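Input set for joint prediction.
Command: fold jointly, output tokens.
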Amino acid sequence: MAKFQSLKEAVTENLRDGDTVAFEGFTHLIPHAAAHEVIRQGIKDLTLIRMTPDIIYDQLIGMGLVKKVIFSYAGNPGVGLLRRMRDAIENDWPRAIETEEHSHAAMANAYEAGAAGLPCAVFRGYRGAGLKEVNPSIKSITCPFTGEELAAVPAHRPDVAVIHAQKANRRGDVLVEGIIGVQKEAVLASKRSVVTVEEVVEDFDDLHPNLCVLPHWTVTSIAHVPGGAHPSYTHGYYDRDNAAYLEWDQISADRDLFMAWMRENVLEAGPDAFATRVKEL
Amino acid sequence: MTNLSDFTPNEMMTIAAARALSNDDVCFVGIGAPSAACNVARLTHAPDITLIYESGTIGTAPNVLPLSIGDGELCETAVTTVSVPEMFRYWLQGGRISIGFLGAAQLDRFGNINTTVIGDYHKPKVRLPGGGGAPEIATSCKEVFITIKQTTRGMVDKIDFYTSFGHGEGGDHRKRLGINTKGPTLLITDLAIWKPDPETKEFTVMSMHQGVTRDRIQETCGWKVRFSDRLEETPPPSELELTTLRELQARTERAHGGKKGS
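tokens >
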């Protein structure tokens, strides 16, 4: 049953040191405010799953909170590389991290298998691809009906899924719209979930019947954090802050600059700052 | 005013790539140069082309080039937007896509692509973003087009990592791995148009862009280049093509505050 909480309480109650956590959002609805709360609380030794680890994983990794990343595309979308993640992989700074790398198809299928309660995902993939030589969790399986060899990867079963969404109603049902990514699958595959929302409304009576809704009994905690996806965007609320993505390339290029930025904008700030950041967008 | 005589090699590359697409194509669009080419095609000779981005947007028609594969405008202008698992399972794996359009950090003569690492995978010299959707785009689309700017760093004799499979070691390598799609059938660079040899599958220069020499193509390519016996010259951009591309880029720069979209 979804519980309405402050973001601080939601993170404290749901995330523990050593957890496997999926912060999802496919370039849209990225849960920045929730990731910042995790950084403020210093929750560590995390295994992070995400198709497209971008700025928030760069930040969590740069702050030394991450043990392992399971991913399929590690870039700053439209800008370039993730410099904190690279520093950890190439130079072990601030600590060495393990990586487990997949393709998007594998990651999407693994979330879907997790949501479907299956132990693994089966799909036609990785043919001729180098990843299956370097990632021991990529295996193959033979179709018992046709004999076709297919790829298999373990299902994702995170301890916690963290997502940002447009709105919740008073009961705690959550609406996601626009580019919906893998958020529904990530929440249904996880033991617990934290959802930040732009808005809490009375009911969903006037919505189209086929919209992507997570019923309240599939969600653990909801926190009302307007602007909580910034500098990502929330369809219908505010646009992507492209300038912030470009700035991140500079900030993340230098360890001291990165630490100073994190102190000012994350450690010494709170979730309320996000509403201000999206005012002009 | 459009000055037809001084188009850039990049503009020629994008326009040559756009010409290769037709109205009936269902195209899975990679970010970067492919995105510009696909949208120029849509705005010129192929208004009904279906453009699909891996964020789940199907039949999208953006007014400016997106900065990322998940920009809001892709969704707002799409026929429908589906979840990412559905995109990869039903639409890509299901065989609904006619052309996958990819860029590359490293490319070899058989159309194998590396966007994963430079150096050893476990101790990389440079960690690149990785494959994203490319490993399955390369094998599930009916055919694959590739664009890359020619440099000896990008077009190499041997790639460091097989992010996505082209023709492997050439010949019938795809068939031997059970891959039934055609793989790379076209390579468009800033200097030339290449197609795989029907037997060996090695990329061969079919057409050089205006003003380009064989020497220049060889100097900017890390393998010994083969030229077709019937080498042609790529027709220069028409006024419509060049104006469409330049206007698209100008709109994009205005929308993204100086940053060129892709």
